[in-house]
Prior knowledge:
Blueprint: E1 2-5, E2 12-15, E3 24-26, E4 33-38, E5 43-46
Antiparallel strand pairs: 1-2, 3-4, 4-5
Amino acid sequence: MMKTxxxxxxxxxxxxxxxxxxxxxxxxDCGTELEVISIDPPKVAEAPMEEEDWGQ
Length: 56
């Protein structure tokens, strides 16, 4: 299990060793979506907002 802290609330984030780069995880404390940007050492960033796809 890997551990780091949430950028928003400083809550503890734990994710499995099979987590992949760019995977989206949720902070259990504040609900923020975070993107895994590094595996070793474990680091996260705020997940990018999804843009609307207006059927184009």
